[in-house]
Write a structure and sequence with these properties.
The chain is α/β, with parallel strands linked by helices and 231 residues long. The chain contains six helices and nine strands; from the N terminus they run H-E-E-H-E-H-E-H-E-E-H-E-H-E-E.
């Protein structure tokens, strides 16, 4: 059993390294291009995460579009190019797109203006939820960097972070969300899934699965988290 466990760990590490390489190649191919989806024109800026051809972004976009309400005040956390923020900005009451990277924030703002949605969405530069007041939002959308590793450049910050990012997020999520607030989050079996559930439960969140996509490498799932008021 121990030998099988070691093999599983090695297999996962290899998959993660290949995934990182493939993501880098993908971003080289699509950077500085303007792509169109759902009547939105999105420019993929250099060193900014591309929502195209990355299944987690696609799954989360569909979930967000189906879950967002016209009364929602939405935070798109780690917005990157602004794709998810633009997706919900046409439907929500108001949307805030945030990113720790000023380069990504500028990219998102340009895409907002490109689609004439700047009156329905604002862009903020901050580390996770640090810039926001208590009970500011009714819905948070988050496509976290789920792969374990230490980023060495701006692009790697978009997909490397793993357990540390999830821990910090769930600690503060209940502060910025209203009492009945929700979280929509995409995650992969290549990330520390058990840590995701542990941190959520530790901070009083329960989850339901919304959608799932299986590939040769991983299973990607979108979750909705709500507060567990029994704890």
């Amino acid at each position: 059993m121990y030998f099988v466990h070691i093999l599983q760990i090695i297999k996962k590490i290899v998959k993660i390294r290949i995934t990182i390489l493939l993501l880098k190649i993908l971003h080289l191919l699509v950077r500085e291009k303007i792509l169109e989806v759902n009547n939105l024109k999105i420019k993929i800026c250099r060193d900014v995460f591309s929502p195209f051809y990355t299944f987690s972004s696609e799954l989360l976009a569909y979930a967000a579009h189906s879950q967002v309400k016209s009364s929602d005040l939405v935070l798109d956390l780690g917005t990157g190019s602004g794709f998810l923020a633009l997706t919900v900005a046409r439907k929500a009451r108001f949307t805030v797109a945030s990113d720790i990277s000023i380069h990504a924030a500028r990219c998102a703002l340009k895409n907002l203006k490109r689609n004439m949605l700047q009156l329905f969405c604002d862009v903020v530069v901050c580390d996770l939820t640090s810039a926001f007041r208590d009970k500011a939002f009714s819905l948070v959308i988050f496509n976290p960097p789920y792969l374990e590793g230490t980023p060495r450049n701006e692009l790697e910050k978009a997909f490397l972070g793993g357990q540390k990012i999830v821990r910090e997020f769930f600690i503060d999520a209940c502060r910025i969300l209203k009492k009945d607030g929700r979280i929509l989050l995409a995650y992969s079996t290549l990330g520390p899934v058990s840590s995701l559930f542990l941190e959520a439960k530790r901070n009083g969140w329960v989850f339901t699965r919304i959608s799932e996509k299986r590939t040769l490498w991983e299973t990607l799932t979108t979750y909705k988290f709500t507060r567990d008021f029994k704890n």
